[in-house]
Amino acid sequence: MHKQRLAEPAGQEDGRPLMTKHETSFPDILDVAALRARCSFIASAHAEHRDLMRQALLAAFKQANLDGREKARELLARDGSGLKCAERISWLQDQLITVLHDFVLNEIFNAANAQPWTRIAVTAVGGYGRGTLAPGSDIDLLFLLPVKKAVWAEPAIEFMLYILWDLGFKVGHATRTIDECIRLSRGDMTIRTAILETRYICGSKELAEELETRFDSEIVKNTGPDFIAAKLAERDERHRKAGDTRYLVEPNVKEGKGGLRDIHTLFWIAKYFYRVKDSADLIKLGVLSRQEYHLFQKADDFLWAVRCHMHFLTGKAEERLSFDIQREIAESLGYHDHPGMTAVERFMKHYFLVAKNVGDLTRIFCAALEDQQAKQLPGFTAALSRFTHRIRKIAGTLEFVDDGGRIALASPDVFKRDPINLIRIFHVADINGLEFHPAALKQVTRSLALITQPVRDDEEANRLFMSMLTSRRDPELILRRMNEAGVLGRFIPEFGKIVSLMQFNMYHHYTVDEHLLRAVDVLSRIDQGRDEELHPLAVKLMPGVEDRTALFVAVLLHDVAKGRPEDHSTAGAKVARKLCPRFGMTPKQTETVAWLIEEHLTMSMVAQTRDLNDRKTIIDFAEKVQSLDRLKMLLILTIADIRAVGPGVWNGWKGQLLRTLYYETELLLSGGFSDLPRKERAAHAAAVLFDALPDWSQKDRKTYTKLHYQPYLLSVPLEDQLRHAVFIREADKAGRALATMVRTHQFHAITEITVLSPDHPRLLAVIAGACAAAGANIVDAQIFTTSDGRALDTILITREFPVDDDEMRRAASIGRMIEDVLSGTKRLPEVIASRTKHRKRNKAFTVPPAVTISNSLSNKFTVIEVECLDRTGLLSEVTAVLSDLSLDIASAHITTFGEKVIDTFYVTDLVGQKITNEGRHGNIVARLKAVMSDEADEMRDRMPSGMIAPQHTRSVTGAKRAKAES
Q: 635-647, pLDDT tens digit by residue?
């Protein structure tokens, strides 16, 4: 919202300023006189050749438009003002349309001397009507016709439109009389809003002024409340569709919450309700303070700068600030890296702070609107309103009152008298279930400077805060209101540092503060038993957590140290040790919170990247956790953390991994971990499988029980062992060397594909390649060898379809692809090449390839962990390299965090031993980094499909692999 710039056009004689003409011209953008002279020359040179005249006209206008926009881009880079850029482009468009209008009427239709009452008016509507235009935006025009239109009027309009279209402009247009405009605006709020923003460009100014006068008297007068209600409802629906948060890490600058459309909505309401043309008049009316108005102007200018840069950069009307362009926009706006924060993260933090300011100003604006409407109600209606929404006392407080279900201030100086009331107002609202009166929140926002260190250290203020955080009602809602009002960041400055802070990756969907508030909400739902279907174990464990308070504090603060140079988990623990005593927590509680924050990523990483069937994994994790209560709290914190990352990040498969890790660790911590020798436990498992096949012949029972080695018998549930036995026997009876079986897991959100095949070292690489070719994302792999030299591998892929039948068809198709590749019917290089041929490489992110080799994470295997940028076919290529290096993969754990993958492989050499030679370690690292690097990916993209290295296979006996597993 900004000042409308007004000016008289050349030739105006009565001295009255037109209602909406740019006050400032921009001769450095376009030399209008030169363009007019050029048009005159074209008219005289091609007077007898209309087609040549049109072509020359188009060329002249195209060049003028290109030159003008390029100049606008240069000036934007120089002065950085988004509003000025939008005004320059709008002015440029005005001049092009005006010169075109005059040329068409003078040279094409000979209407220069037409009677005044027959002339048309060309006006701008929409964003263009506000005198601002983004480089790629549509041009919305309203052509006003007189009551007695001339025969040339509509053909002239059509001619102008065709020229504008041929120039490449996207033109939204309407041709109406004033009566039609008034009639249509009565019943259509969109048309009413468009006419509200009508701005004269050229032609008959009398028509434009008449429309403004009649619209004001016949439509706007006495209909303010209806218009406000419609615009605010429209805004709420727009926010709902966009995710109802201003903290999406790829925000829509125009339509998103806190974006330009929200500012436009307030402009419409101000213009309609207060009947002002200049937003600066809102200061005189007392709606906004001078400081708030300047904040509004800064927000508007910043958002316009971002939007204009986006349009210039992409060459189109791009409104979504996607990862692909955030770095370049940050660079264009002059941001630089700082310790702990990259330039793009600093830019996006600024963006979200601006979006928050827009929200604050909206709240202040709406409070003023409500007060103004109440004052304008007729006496009887006002009295009835006061009775309906009468002010009631709130038990236990004299500072606040209940105004129709909303907490309001009992007197204007409530906060000045006692700054603790800035915390208390939220507590009272929480315990009484009250919404917030806009005027109260407006006063809160204006009183933030009262929250000083003495307030932060005050025992009562901290007690009230802790009561809200651990409330059994809706702590997230109250904390969100505190954050939106700016109180949370002032009361806890460490939290204030991460307000609006984004993390530049595809994994986190929200800013850090939004993520933390959503995590508190997940914890609250678990605490209330509302998410039992999603988190059965967490809901069961929550009542038994010894220190519920410590868990809530840990969840709120677990990412509070993001954006610092040091590791955020370590730094966060330090912050907790500082804040928890202030909150009134005991030394024991403080250490619990600090430990939870320091280890808040541990359980997730172990569950997703380690072999949970390897006893060493459980022992190492148990040594870190040390107690059952810590284990419970860490599980619940991990769930809240993952759930709050964003939609689609949590799934049942992750839940299953966490439950498995919990149960295995619980057994160890409680002394229930079996000390029986592994051989005895495997023998017992084989006997159980034998007894579970009573309908089979004695021979078959023995044959299929003896197929499996210890790792299989000790890690695969009996239910799956029985399915596998039936699957293998049916394949044997059918004489099939290759077979696949699929099963869906709706709760886990994964699909299981089991492959039976002759064993060879490259088997996982071939299966992974086939899955990549079919577009399937592998999340885990279980690899087993049978005693007769076959592989029984189970691949878990992410689910794509919600309906089981659809997912089964997809899984069966992937299974057939695996069989075709393994049998040689299809060649893997070709199918992968066809899949990746038209892929769009992810250039927004860089993940330096990293390889870690450890012999301490497992007693039997060498653990290789790779970390790099994800891409189609990566797993296939990595596993192929491991096979080239004569490494046998016993298990693989595939984890994706947005654009980054962390894949872990438990391997041995071909005789079942760990890889201990340092020279060989170096070779493994070098070979893996080579295939993971960006250069390798670019070379692969440039290669013809026939040049991609073939996937050779060579056999290895089942005994060798079995030795490694056993």
A: 999 999 999 987 7
CA-based torsion, 817, 818, 820, 826: positive or negative: positive
Q: Which has the closest alpha carbon to 6: 91, 96, 102?
A: 91
DSSP secondary structure letters along 781-811: EEEEEBTTSEEEEEEEEE---SSHHHHHHHH
- 38 versus 932: the higher-pLDDT residue is 38
Indicate the average pLDDT of the chain: 84
Q: For the residues 448-458, what does the mean pLDDT come to?
A: 97
78 with 65: CB under 8 angstroms? no
pLDDT in tens, 391-435: 899 998 999 999 888 999 999 999 999 999 999 999 999 999 999
DSSP secondary structure of 228-276: HHHHHHHHHHHHHHTTS-S-BSS-BTTTSTTSHHHHHHHHHHHHHHS--
233-378 and 32-221 share a CATH fold: no
Q: Is the pLDDT of residue 950 over 50?
A: no
Higher pLDDT, 956 or 921: 921
Where do the structural domains in the chain lie, given as residue ranges?
32-221, 233-378, 389-491, 504-673, 737-965
Task: State the amino acid at position 370 in one-letter form.
Answer: E
Helix (H) or strand (E) holding 93: helix 82-103
> What single DSSP character describes residue 581?
H
Q: For 21-75, what is each residue's pLDDT tens digit? A: 445 678 889 999 999 999 999 998 888 888 899 999 999 999 999 999 999 999 9
797 phi/psi in degrees, rounded to 5: -120, 155
Binned at pLDDT 50, 70 and 90, residue 454 comes out as very high
Element at 178 (helix H, strand E): helix 178-187
* Nearest to 667, CA basis, from 657, 675, 655, 677: 675
Superfamily of segment(s) 233-378:
Nucleotidyltransferases  domain 2 (1.20.120.330)
Q: Which of 377, 394, 395 is nearest to 386 (CA)?
A: 377
Q: What is the pLDDT of residues 506-540, one digit of tens each?
A: 556 788 998 999 999 999 999 999 988 889 999 99
Q: Is the dihedral angle over the CA atoms 638, 643, 644, 645 positive or is it negative?
A: positive
Question: Rounded CA gap, 921 and 918, in Å?
Answer: 5
pLDDT at 231: 81
Chain segment 436-450, per-residue pLDDT in tens: 988 898 899 889 999
* Helix and strand element counts for the chain (H, E): 43, 16
Q: Residue 570 — pLDDT band, cuts 50, 70, 90?
A: very high
Assign 12 a pLDDT band (cuts: 50, 70, 90). Answer: very low
> How is 297-335 classified by DSSP, letter by letter?
HHHHHHHHHHHHHHHHHHTS---B--HHHHHHHHHHTT-
CATH class in words for 389-491: mainly alpha
| pLDDT for position 892 | 82
Distance CA(335)–CA(345), nearest Å, equals 9
* Calpha distance 575→596 (Å, rounded): 12
**Which CATH number is associated with domain 32-221?**
3.30.460.10
The encoded tokens of residue 186 equal: 């009565």
Helix (H, G, I), strand (E, B) or coil at 594: helix
* Positive or negative: CA dihedral 667, 673, 678, 682: negative
Please choose, from the candidates 790, 793, 795, 824, the residue with its C-alpha nearest in 3D space to the C-alpha of residue 950: 824
The pair of three-digit structure tokens given for residue 829, joined into one six-digit string: 């290089």
Rounded CA separation 348/247 (Å): 10
State how far the Cα of 638 lies from the Cα of 624, in Å rounded to an integer. 15
DSSP secondary structure code for residue 151 in this structure: T
Cα distance between the two ends of the chain? 72
Distance CA 543, CA 413 (A): 43
DSSP 501: -
- Report residue 339 as tokens: 């310790």
